[in-house]
Specification:
- Residues 564-577, 597-618 have a biased composition (Pro residues).
- The chain has a domain at 18-63.
- The strands form four sheets. A four-stranded antiparallel sheet has the order 1-2-8-7.
- It is built from 31 helices and ten strands.
- With 945 residues, it is α+β, with helices and mostly antiparallel strands.
- The model is unreliable at 226-241 and 448-632 (pLDDT under 50).
């Protein structure tokens, strides 16, 4: 529905009216078409339109003639009234604005006259007020000047305050006047002079210094200074005319609040310094009262140093009490009430802190003998806190810091002793190890005596075929060397089991399990001389024979004879040398290389006391008659190893700690004062000292431990020695010392684990180094090329030299059992790597087989590292499980397929896996029916005998 348009609104005009249409036609008509006819047509059209419009107008008027006449009359009336109104307005304008008789000009003149009179009146009143106020200010300024010149400081201060209020209340016109600014400058100068006089009087009334305290209840004022030609000079008033004294309370009240606050803060600082000065050293105090000729009284407290060490620390508390009493009687009552309480209370904290930090803490004893005297001092400190801080200074709060500290004095004493002990332990731990002061600790071992044959000079011959020996478990070897308590696994058990497994129980009786006894407390042996590093045992085959003194590296440690002659240990029959394969020498001799040596039988021998003998292959059978036996007797053997001297100091410190804690408990001194159990804090220092050792030594000696192969082993020895000695200490704990048992037992295990881990890490690091050296061999491939062969040979020689360099260093510090374990581990790592690389080769030519065999034989020189007696075979197989396998590998590389088949049938290759033998045969020999049949034989498995 459309919105209806209201009737009173005008209608929309036709946008296309006549004029617009004609103008549009004119604009659209081109110039050439324009002519008189066209123009006359446009004019005629306009005339027609005008005539039509007139006609419509007349018709409209005629149709509404009454309305038209009414509107016309109304228009004429409006015109008449407009003319009359205009005339009246012109007359009114003349009566109001006429310059001579008009209303507005007359009114403005009257108002201007009135304003002028009012302004004159206001100016007169303001001038009167300003002059009156200025007169008042001048009078006050003159009065202030007189007071200042007469040194009446209290009244001058009040006059300054009054004049300041006048300046603040000055009328507005006077504030910006020059005379007021001049008066303000003069007032400021007089106020500064007054403040200067007050401060001077204050400095003479209250004097605090290292020499003592001086309090003057009243002082004589001095002449003020005046500014003359840019310099301050004394007033021209004769000094005889000045006889003004000012009392100390009035003096303090006259000082401005800001200046008084600063002065009291300085006084508080000086009093605190004096209190600290008295508590730090012995002092003598003299209290005197002096009155001069003018009648001025002076209270003086003199401080003089006493001879050092000539007085008891409790006298310092008495001196402090005397000082605070003096101040409470002669100084504090003079303070204004608003500042008195706050100032006195502000001294409580510095005094309490000074007593604690300068008297109690520095005198905290470092030994139990001095503790009773210190407890008396603490009781006196509690009494001094009550008398000084509570009674004199009025600090009645619940914070009794000194009493609280004294209630826990036992804990404070023990904490300080623990800190001192740990500092001493740290000094011991971080001290660089000195090889000249190191000593050799003995490891007692109890083993069963072995049966002795009837004919000791006759060798025991055992026939059989050679076969690999499996190594004894590492746990058994380690426990035989170190675990002396509560352990039942011994090398003898492993040895007995090995012999029984291979059929030697008919010849050698099965020994009883050895009985382990507790390690006796080691005595302090003489410090051992530093072992010679350059091949002390003469193990290097290519080196010159070692000197006589080099043979004694372990004489005092491994082969040390007890004071009393011990029964001789029966020698264990050496294991039989394996028999060479039948016909192998002939077959090897018939090969193209006549220089190739015959297959050497790897030697077997009984190892040192710790390791178990190698189990023998099944083909070995005993053919000798049984040995004559004698009853088994326990024989105590000892091994020794190098220990740093600092371990002895550290363990002695630990025992001293335990003894001190027990002595503190038995003394009963702290039972009445300590809230906790006496001795518990000190005894904690024992395991903490060991924790410092475990934490600091690897850090402070990190560079040395990384560079030297011997240092990690020495640190391992230190840890294991500490674990062993600590176990003895723990076993002897009793009474109050038992509180440390759990921590010390935990430390025993941690030290043992730490020692073993460093031992194993040192071995692992050497194994990684050897592995890196063998990486240069690149798997021993292409050895037919002379350059590659030289690289492989250099790598193996480097491994050999590295082992020879490491061996004497380890030998100088380790026990025999641990030394051979460590040496055997790195030799085993080298052999296993070479075995793996060689057996991984898929094709080995005849030239390569000869060269690989030559490379393998380089490491045969390591067998000399496992020989102690040149007349006895080496015991390398006891520690290097791959030795026989490695030894056979060098021969198999040059052996014929018949030799390999024969050795396999005789059970001499049991160390090799079947797939390894198969792969080796395929790599060495071309594909022939003989190789195929040999491989089939190998794949059937090792022969069972």
């Amino acid at each position: 529905m459309a919105f209806p348009v209201p009737t009173h609104l005008p209608r929309k005009k036709n946008a296309r009216d006549v004029a617009t249409r004609i103008l549009t036609k004119v604009s659209e008509t081109p110039l050439k078409a324009l002519s008189a006819i066209v123009a006359s047509s446009w004019v005629a059209e306009l005339d027609d339109t005008i005539g039509l419009t007139k006609t419509q107008i007349h018709e409209r008027i005629s149709s509404n003639l009454p309305d038209f006449e009414r509107q016309l009359a109304t228009s004429v009336s409006v015109q008449e009234r407009l003319r009359s109104l205009s005339h009246n307005v012109d007359g009114l304008q003349d009566s109001i604005s006429n310059p001579h008789s008009g209303l507005i000009p007359n009114l403005l003149n009257s108002l201007i006259s009135h304003a002028k009179v009012a302004q004159e009146t206001a100016d007169a009143r303001a001038q009167h007020a300003a002059l009156s106020h200025l007169l008042h200010c001048r009078n006050e300024l003159r009065r202030l000047t007189r007071l200042v010149e007469k040194a009446e400081l209290a009244d001058a201060t009040m006059a300054c305050a009054s004049l300041g209020r006048l300046f603040a209340d000055a009328p507005e016109p006077l504030v910006r006047s020059e005379v007021m600014a001049d008066m303000k400058r003069k007032c400021t100068a007089l106020r500064n002079r007054t403040e200067e006089q007050l401060l001077d009087a204050y400095s003479r009334s209250i004097v605090v210094s290292e020499a003592g305290f001086i309090v003057r209840p009243s002082v004589q004022a001095v002449l003020p200074r005046q500014l003359h030609n840019g310099t301050w000079t004394q007033s021209m008033i004769p000094s005889d005319s000045i006889d003004t004294t000012i009392e100390l309370p009035a003096l303090l009240a006259a000082i401005s609040p800001a200046t008084l606050f600063t002065s009291l803060a300085t006084l508080r600082r000086d009093i605190s310094h004096c209190v600290e000065y008295v508590l730090k050293q012995p002092m003598q105090i003299y209290d005197t009262t002096i009155q001069d000729i003018t009648g001025v009284i002076e209270y003086k407290l003199s401080l003089q140093r006493a001879a050092p060490g000539s007085e008891d620390p409790t006298l310092r508390l008495s001196n402090l009490t005397s000082i605070m009493t003096f101040l409470n009687e002669h100084l504090f009552p003079n303070f204004p009430p608003a500042e008195r309480k706050s100032f006195v209370l502000s001294l409580a904290a510095p005094v309490r802190t000074a007593i604690l930090n300068l008297l109690l803490l520095p005198n905290l004893p470092s030994s139990l003998s001095k503790l009773p005297d210190f407890l008396k001092l603490t009781q006196n400190a509690v009494e001094a806190e009550q008398e000084i801080i509570v009674n004199l200074l009025g600090d009645s709060s619940a914070d009794r810091g000194i009493k609280t500290w004294v209630d826990w004095v036992g804990q404070h004493y023990e904490r300080q002793r623990r800190a001192d002990i740990l500092d001493k332990a740290r000094a011991i731990v971080v001290t660089p190890a000195d090889d000249s002061t190191a000593f050799r600790a003995e490891v007692p071992l109890v083993v069963e005596d072995q049966p002795i044959p009837v004919q000791e000079d006759e060798p025991v011959a055992v026939n059989g075929k050679e076969q690999s020996k499996k190594p004894a478990p590492a746990e058994a070897e380690d426990s035989s060397a170190w675990d002396f308590e509560d352990e039942s696994d011994t090398p003898n058990q492993s040895e007995a089991a090995s012999i029984d497994d291979w059929g030697f129980d008919d010849d050698v009786p099965e020994p009883e399990p050895e009985h382990v006894v507790d390690a006796p407390e080691p005595s302090e042996p003489e410090p051992a001389e530093e072992p010679v590093e350059d091949d002390p045992w003469g193990w290097n085959d290519d080196a010159e024979p070692a000197k006589a003194e080099d043979d004694s590296v372990w004489d005092d440690a491994w082969d040390e004879k007890p004071a009393a002659p011990a029964p001789p240990t029966a020698p264990v029959p050496p294991s039989p040398a394996p028999r060479q394969a039948m016909g192998l020498a002939k077959k090897l001799g018939a090969k193209s290389n006549p220089q190739s040596p015959a297959l050497p039988p790897p030697s077997f021998a009984t190892p040192p006391p710790a390791p178990a003998p190698a189990p023998q292959p099944a083909p070995f059978a005993a053919k000798n008659p049984p040995l004559a036996r004698r009853p088994l007797k326990p024989v105590q053997l000892t091994e020794s190893y190098v220990v740093s001297s600092r371990m002895k100091e550290l363990l002695q410190l630990l025992e001293d700690i335990l003894h001190e804690s027990a002595e503190l408990v038995f003394s009963g001194i702290l039972n009445a004062t300590s809230s906790g159990s006496p001795g518990n804090t000190i005894v904690q220092a024992a395991p903490m000292a060991l924790e410092l050792f475990r934490a600091l030594v690897p850090v402070t000696n990190a560079a040395l431990l990384k560079q030297s192969p011997k240092e990690p082993m020495k640190f391992s020895n230190d840890c294991l020695y500490a674990s062993q000695e600590l176990r003895r200490i723990v076993a002897g704990l009793s009474g109050p010392k038992v509180a440390a048992r759990d921590k010390l037992e935990e430390a025993v295990e941690r030290l043992k684990v730490l020692g073993e881990s460093w031992f194993e890490d040192a071995i692992a690091r050497e194994e990684r180094l050897i592995d890196e050296m063998l990486d240069r061999a690149s798997g021993f491939m292409d050895t037919t090329q002379q350059e590659r062969y030289d690289e492989c040979e250099e790598a193996i020689n480097d491994v050999l030299q590295r082992i020879r360099r490491v061996a004497p260093q380890w030998k100088a510090v380790l026990t025999k059992s641990r030394y051979y374990d460590a040496l055997g581990s790195i030799v085993e790592a080298a052999l296993a790597r070479i075995l793996g690389d060689v057996l991984a080769l898929e094709d080995i030519t005849e030239t390569e087989s000869h060269r690989l065999s030559e490379l393998c034989r380089i490491l045969n020189a390591l067998e000399g590292q496992f020989v102690e007696d040149p007349d006895q075979p080496s015991f390398v197989v006891s520690y290097v499980s791959s030795w026989l396998k490695f030894s056979y590998l060098s021969e198999l590389l040059e052996a014929s397929i018949a030799d390999i088949s024969y050795l396999f049938e005789e059970g001499a290759l049991v160390d090799f896996e079947i797939n390894e033998l198969v792969k080796l045969v395929k790599a060495l020999f071309a594909e022939t029916p003989l190789r195929a049949s040999t491989i089939n034989k190998l794949q059937q498995g090792h022969p069972v005998r």
